[in-house]
Amino acid sequence: MTRQVLLFIVLLFIRSVYGQISYSIPEEMSKGSLVGNIAHDLGLQPKRLSSGKARIYTRDSDEYIELNRERGVLLVKERIDREALCRRATPCALHFQIILENPMEFYSVAVQITDINDNAPTFEKSEMKFKISESATLGAIFVLKRAADLDVGTNDLQRYELKPTDNFVLKLQTKADGNKIVEMVLQKPLDREKDEQISLVLTAVDGGEPQMSGTMLIVITVLDANDNAPVFTQPTYKATVTENSPKGTFVAAVKASDADHGSNGKVTYSITNTLDNVLEVFDVNEENGEVTSIGNIDFEDSRNYEINLLASDEGGLTHSCKLIVDVTDINDNKPEINIMSKSNVISEDAKLNTVVTMINIEDKDSGENGDVKCYISENIPFTLKASTNDFYSLITDSDLDRERSSEYNITVSCSDEGVPSLSSSVTLTLQISDVNDNAPVFERSAYEAYIVENNTPGLSIFTVKAGDADWKQNARVSYILEDSSVNGVPVSSFVSVSADSGVIHAVRSFDYEQIKDFHFRVKAQDGGSPPLSSNVSVKILIQDQNDNPPQVLYPVQTGGSLVAEMVPRSADVGYLVSKVVAVDVDSGQNAWLSYKLQKATDRALFEVGLQNGEIRTIRQVSDKDAVKQRLAVIVEDNGQPSRSATVIVNVAVADSFPEVLSEFTDFPHDKEYNDNLTFYLVLALAVVSFLFITCLVVIISVKIYRWRQSRILYHSGLPVIPYYPPRYSDTLGTGTLPHVYNYEVCRTTDSRKSDCKFGTAGSQNVLIMDPSSTGTMQRIQSEKSILDEADSPLEVRLSVYNP
Ligand SMILES: *[C@@H]1O[C@H](CO)[C@@H](O)[C@H](O)[C@H]1NC(C)=O
Ligand SMILES: *[C@@H]1O[C@H](CO)[C@@H](O)[C@H](O)[C@H]1NC(C)=O
Question: Which of 409, 411, 430 has the most ligand 1 atoms within 8 A of CB, as the residue to mutate?
């Protein structure tokens, strides 16, 4: 409607000013469409047109408009395409004249063709291709082909649209010459890896009603740039490998992928460890990422390896990952036994659970392969106690006895729990040190020995011996004579015992006739601290020696008086004249006496009974026989050698006493002898009394001195080595010994060697009876010693033994 109103106004304006009629019609009207009522508009009668033979005059060959004379209107004759008629020129009008005849007149008519939107914008090509690197920078500009629209005005191309707009935006630019340029600008980076090809649609839109559009496809091929690093499939890989695996063992395969294309996506693998020994142990295949061992894998060296792997593409982009290789242990290490501290010696009185040795066990393997158990042999008084992990102490678990076993070789064996198990062992040698726990023991429960009387003092009688199971000083036995007395006399005046050797010496000469046997005890004491001791009883049997000649009891031999046996002249053969009675204080054979006639005035008259000593006549006494007969009878004992005594027996062969007297009175009597005897007896009594008092004083003094001396030693606290000075004194009253011997006991600083000097008169044979060996006799030659002179004083040097 608005167009018709506008057309009307235009028509009026044209007619009035130019005398020219203008019409305006849109293009593309259908054939026969009314353009305008020309007759009316020219103010002509309809008949005038017919009569005037009105026709259209135009220079153009084409006739778009025809004149209908009957109706007086202009009609569209041909389809009018404004674009073909005027192209882009505006306004677009058809100019022609209507010519009339009769009268001839013409009118100019202009038919303006208005545009309708009958053309869509079009692109020259339906598709445009680009190849853009994905690394193209933002803001990169790509010029697009423009579209064209044949329509004009508002129907012309108005704008472009680009879809999608993910990566690009459209930019229109008008150049100075008025040309318009369509560009697309990269506003978001491309990613080949996401979209290798991007299709965009560029739409050109006009402003017509209805709107029309044309499109063009923009195909963008994104070119690869090395914008992607290789990427490992896992940040960390894990693998296990058994230790001692041979070289070339497959460990693991790593994989990295690279999203890029071609060489940008070609991945090579390498190991980048530098500071450790990984490169010596592992290698990675450059191409396929397989990790293999190339060196010795030792669990004990390294329980796991951290391999840093690098994947690189050829563009130099890299990615790294870790491969953690856990090494599986195999039992390839023996347990190691380390002795942390050790005693080589332990006392036999060590308490239970005394630690002897501390041991540390180490097995480099792990788990069961490193689980170590240790043990020692059984039946020894030790046990192995596990303290904390891997620490053991060897302790005593029963009493030790050096005397039973003085040394132990303790083998500690340790084995692990691996399969197969490995083991090692160490042998500890342990000495057991001695404690004085054994008293000396004598070889016999009692001793018995024989000594022949009249021995030389200092003679060794025999030896007692005690053994001590302990060791060294604890087994060093000293022999000590126990104090006792024999018949009231200290035994030390009979025997002495050598402290070191146990040799029993006779201190004095024994007289069988005085004492036949005696007992004493010898103590054996060891050198331990405190010392242990035991004692044994010793019996000494004195053997008789033929040391006493027979003693004639009858007839009594007096110096002065004369005794005679009377034999009557009438005596028969076999008359018992007298009997010689003799005794021998010796015993046995030594006391077995025999009697023989040694000399006689008349040998044919008397005989002496060999056994009984009876003197008998052996023939008839005759008158011719002398009154005074003198017989010498020898009494012999049966000893070896034998001893004898001779007795003179006076026999008077007479019938009466006066006869005898006359024969025997030639012996004078000494009257003075009896007078003097009384005087001498008184004098002797006085001397004896004086000597007795003197002795008493001396003995008391000595006793007091000794007592004080022993107190001093006792208080000094030093071990007292007892000594028993063999004493001999003639005042002891034995009285039978023919000689007095003094001797010296010496102790040197080395108490193991005592040198005692005994006076002996020469070599002496001593018989010793061994009580156990059924009476076997042993002959022992006593040593020759130096004889000390009788008056040399008793000297005792005392030394204190210092252990
Ligand atoms: C202990 O071993 C040593 C040396 O191997 C050997 O001399 C000694 O006799 C052994 N002792 C014991 C009690 O077996
Ligand atoms: C001697 O030993 C016995 C045990 O054998 C003991 O009873 C006695 O007291 C000891 N005598 C001395 C004097 O030591």
Answer: 409
Report the distance separating Cα 713 and Cα 524, nearest Å.
Answer: 21
**What is the C-alpha to C-alpha distance for residues 653 and 663, in angstroms, rounded to an integer?**
10
In DSSP terms, which residues pair with 326 in a beta bridge?
240, 304
Residue 461 is inside which H or E element, if any? strand 460-463
Dist. CA 472 → ligand 1 center (Å): 21
Give SS3 for 206. Answer: strand
> Which of 402, 406, 426, 429 has the most ligand 1 atoms within 8 A of CB, as the residue to mutate?
429
Select from 269, 266, 242 the least CA-distant residue to 255. Answer: 269
> SS3 for 673?
helix
3-state secondary structure of 493: helix
Give the integer Cα–Cα distance in Å for 392 and 384: 6
CA atoms lying within 13 Å on the CB side of residue 675: 4
Across the chain, mean pLDDT equals 81
Bridge partner list, 26: 114
Amino acid at 13: F
In this structure, what DSSP letter does residue 145 have? Answer: P
Q: Half-sphere exposure of 540 toward its Cβ, with a 13 Å CA cutoff?
A: 28
Give 436 Cα–ligand 2 centroid separation in angstroms.
19
Cα–Cα distance, 395 to 366 (Å, whole number) = 28
Alpha-carbon distance values, 559 to 455, 562, 581, 757 (Å): 34, 8, 18, 44
In terms of average pLDDT, the best of 177-186, 286-295, 746-755 is 286-295
For the CA of 428, the nearest ligand: 1
Contact predicate 232/269, CB 8 Å:
no
In the block, which residue shows the tokens 């990790």?
A: 291
pLDDT of residue 425: 93
**Residue 253's beta-bridge partner residues?**
290
**How close are the terminal C-alpha atoms of the chain, in Å?**
156
Give me the pLDDT at residue 410, please.
92
Q: Are 454 and 428 in contact (CB under 8 A)?
A: no
pTM for this structure? 0.48
**Atom 2 of ligand 1, residue of closest alpha carbon:** 409
pLDDT at 72: 85
pLDDT given for residue 49 in this prediction: 84
Q: Give yes or no for a cis peptide into 91 (omega within 30° of 0).
A: yes
> Domains, the chain, ranges and CATH?
2-114 (2.60.40.60), 119-225 (2.60.40.60), 226-328 (2.60.40.60), 336-433 (2.60.40.60), 445-543 (2.60.40.60), 551-666 (2.60.40.60), 689-800 (no CATH)
For range 700-713, the mean pLDDT: 81
Q: What's the rounded Cα separation, in Å, for the pair 224 and 141?
A: 19
Residues whose CB is less than 8 angstroms from the CB of residue 13 and which lie 6 or more positions away in sequence, other chains included: none
For 238, 271, 308, the CA distances from 245, given in Å and listed in that order, are 17, 20, 21
Judge whether residue 282 has pLDDT over 90: yes
Instruction: Using the predicted structure, report yes or no on whether residue 6 has a pLDDT greater than 70.
Output: no
**Mapping DSSP to helix (H, G, I), strand (E, B) and coil, where does residue 47 land?**
helix
Q: For residue range 131-168, what is the model confidence (pLDDT) as tens digits? A: 999 888 999 999 988 888 888 888 888 889 998 888 89
Both tokens assigned to 554: 């009858």
- Tokens 């000689």 — which residue? 739
Each residue of 101-134: pLDDT tens digit? Answer: 888 888 888 889 888 888 889 998 999 999 999 8
d(CA 770, CA 443): 13
Q: Which residues make Cβ contacts (< 8 Å) with residue 112, sequence separation at least 6?
A: 22, 23, 24, 25, 91, 92, 93, 94
